[in-house]
Amino acid sequence: MERLRPIMLVGTGSDVGKSLLCTGLCRIFKQDGYAPAPFKSQNMALNSYSTPGGGEIGRAQAVQAEACGIVPDTDMNPVLLKPVGDSVSQVVVEGKPAGNMSAQDYFRKENKEGLWERALAAYRRLEERYSPVVLEGAGSISELNLRERDITNMRMAEAADARTFLVADIERGGVFAAVYGSVMLLPERQRRLLRGVIVNKFRGDVSLFEEGRRMMEKLTGVPVVGVVPALRDVHIPEEDSMSLAQKERRPRREKVNVAVVPLQHISNFTDFDALEFDGRFHVYYTDEAEGLEAADVVVLPGTKNTIGDLEYLQRRGTAELVREAYRRGKRVVGICGGYQMLGLRVEDPLHVEGSRESVEGIGLLPVVTVMGREKVVCQSDFLFRGNAAWGCRGYQIHMGETRVEGDGVVEPLNVLADGGTEGCWRDERCWGTYMHGILDNRAVLDELAVGEGGGLSPERTYAEYKEQQYDLLAERVREALDMDYIYRTLKE
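Above: the chain's sequence. Below: its structure in token form.
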């Protein structure tokens, strides 16, 4: 198969749909016999993923790698920023944490130049192994104040000599101004890199935009290569926390109602995608008394700031509502940071997360977590509740070590492949784990549904469901884009 030039999708702003369209292109190229791989030099996200080598990358690039049918690699996302508070992020470089940094420090020129060199080296390594590389930009390409420190958008497009396409979200309004401004604010040398505009999230009859398409091409001199409809029937794991605003907020009858507590620094909320796929469950997000009282299962999710979010839950009274839910017979589950919160205390003697050295936990699990500077990042095979028939897979990304308090005997939740144990099982109504992706395993979902009137388990596995969704996404994107034109640009 001939090699293709790299392709890059950049945006008029954040949340315009670049990640989803890159995922669709990754699957299209795979279907057509090529060997694609995703790349985003710098990503800011709270949803992350562990590579087999123990590195941490943005969840979007892991999803895109899955759509390509390849193993995720830290070269696909060499710089990851994970917000831990206002204007402060943990910086992950080539899969390993490099410390916390304020926005002001991060954007210092000397810092960015070092990161640029490492990002470019990662891209070069990827380019040697795959074709085409599908690059994704970040935010808007027209942030003039950040242009000189850019390591993600048009500077990367230039370095890769990528065939570059501008994605605009028509759903938010002002699409002509967004496209025209984005194109015209580019220096001439970068403007020449643009090979097309993609109008995304169109509602209604696409043919009604034909006149608008011609007007946009005349204004910018750049062809419109596709108008993509709002893909409401396609379900791909999401990365951006802004998508949480569209999540369900209320319970439903005749379902196992799972209430996820929406933490301020919620991370890896893709842990609940499998629940949404499984017809036995209804997932909704709430920290209100009425919503928690209606739940069959209450889940505390992962967080990038356990102590800050734990204090937030205590101030709002949500911590007491979680304890009350358990007393009333509800199931209470904690995942990663949520697991730490369910314990007796979270201690931070090294001030990894802030100034507080110790915070009282919710107290449903007899464990204490001590924060440390070392981060655990790994993929894990495990037996859920030690049952050899329940072989499962997941991944861990966490700071801190959790231990049982006192001399009490506590049953671990999982037995790892190396014989170690993980998590804590109090009883059938309360458990905690560090294992992200634990709910992707049918054995765990079946256990959650037992006794809740959940009915039969789905015929397909969640992995099979995801593969079907990648193919559906590729079909929709292929229908909407001029793929003949795109292929011509990639073969130039």
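The chain has two domains: 7-235+468-490, 256-453.
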